[in-house]
């Protein structure tokens, strides 16, 4: 099936560069390829694939255009909309939220037809007109829930994250560029409780531990895997190359470029 009429379109905001997922959203990839990582699992989407990003999760995205084109459909399911939908259609939320921030959805021809049906409702910027937003979102949600009823346990869980294993979570997610406050929230703790538990466990403040942990991984990537500093700093949670280089030199006494060259020579 060809989707030549579909370009990037959105119902609600576009995907943020922030690695925290504040609301559930449906993603349909129309053109190009995409990979995502949530700390546990690597996901890959090709043109025609679709999935659900789960609220209160973490994920990193990378895209590969097809002949310069990367087009997608993004539909957000915010909490107010989902609460109204649940009341109207009497869906029950049963079971616990599954592990992972991304759910690859079951193949369903109705989803492809739904995506094609969006075209007449889009404005020139690829945004669906407001008067049709809730109608089309409800249509999609009925399709998804009829095919996969277990999604109700994800979509209609309106609670905050529960308290979880702090050591396991941090060792899996230390490369994600989110605030200490966000880490506290995602592990089911207040900021003060997070800092207290963290220091009891790691014998270090969260900020210092994160920098050291990221730099240790950077050293490994540079020396053993032959990576360049410009290739790794973003993936390791640093916001800019200069800050990464300064912190690296302060920690190890020499620049990341020096270590990268040494690794290349060893190879």
From TrEMBL:
Per its UniProt record, what PROSITE patterns does this chain match? HTH_ARAC_FAMILY_2
Q: Which residues form the HTH araC/xylS-type domain?
A: 164-262
Keywords from the named record: DNA-binding, Transcription, Transcription regulation
Q: Does Transcription count among this protein's keywords? A: yes
Please name the source species: Fibrella forsythiae
Return the protein name: Helix-turn-helix transcriptional regulator
The question of whether Transcription is a record keyword is answered with yes
Query: InterPro entries this protein is in?
Result: AraC_XylS_family_regulators, ExsA-like_N, Homeodomain-like_sf, HTH_AraC
**Source superkingdom:** Bacteria
